[in-house]
Specification:
Layout (H helix, E strand, L loop, with lengths): L1 E11 L2 E7 L14 H9 L3 E7 L9 E6 L1 H29 L4 H26 L8 E5 L2 H11 L8
Antiparallel strand pairs: 1-2, 1-4, 2-3, 4-5
Length: 163
């Protein structure tokens, strides 16, 4: 389960709007100099993102919560978003090269058009699946519960006496 911490910023019936701040672990990665993800992380660092989640923990505005998303759903959505346009680009270029033999410009244009169609298809597919629960994050727990538990453990000494 992928987890992200956020803050409840608004309530909407049985739903809550959760704001998360994009974080990156790129600064501690040895491959950051040659990684495209590092560049994307720098561009989006510190930007807020809001998501509408069922308020299953009955939280109030201002409370922090840990959200979770299934790794398999994340992987399937990522594959769709990246792989479909890439495959469409390749298929479009191959088809265009056969239709317009010898014309590299039209072959490239056919590939780009097919890639754009792939992006539109992936976008529509994701929008249609947005209502499916497996593709939506869920509230896992209140964010500071584990901190309270750790503090309670430290208050108890080895012999089991409270300090």
């Amino acid at each position: 389960m992928l987890e992200e911490t956020g803050t409840v910023v608004a309530l909407d019936g049985r739903f809550a709007w959760i704001q998360t701040i994009r974080q990156s672990t790129c600064s501690s990665c040895s491959a950051k100099a040659s990684c495209g993800q590092s560049v994307l992380a720098k561009m989006s660092q510190g930007k807020a993102n809001q998501v509408k989640v069922e308020n299953s923990l009955h939280l109030s505005v201002g409370q922090e919560v840990v959200l979770g998303l299934s790794e398999s759903a994340f992987l399937r959505a990522s594959l769709l978003i990246y792989l479909v346009p890439l495959l469409a680009l390749i298929a479009g270029a191959i088809l265009s090269s056969r239709l317009f033999e010898g014309n590299e410009g039209l072959t490239a244009l056919g590939g780009v058009v097919a890639m754009l169609v792939g992006f539109v298809f992936a976008s529509k597919w994701c929008s249609a699946r947005q209502q499916l629960s497996e593709f939506n994050p869920v509230m896992l727990r209140v964010a500071h519960e584990e901190i309270v538990r750790i503090c309670d453990i430290k208050k108890t000494d080895v012999a089991g006496h409270h300090s």
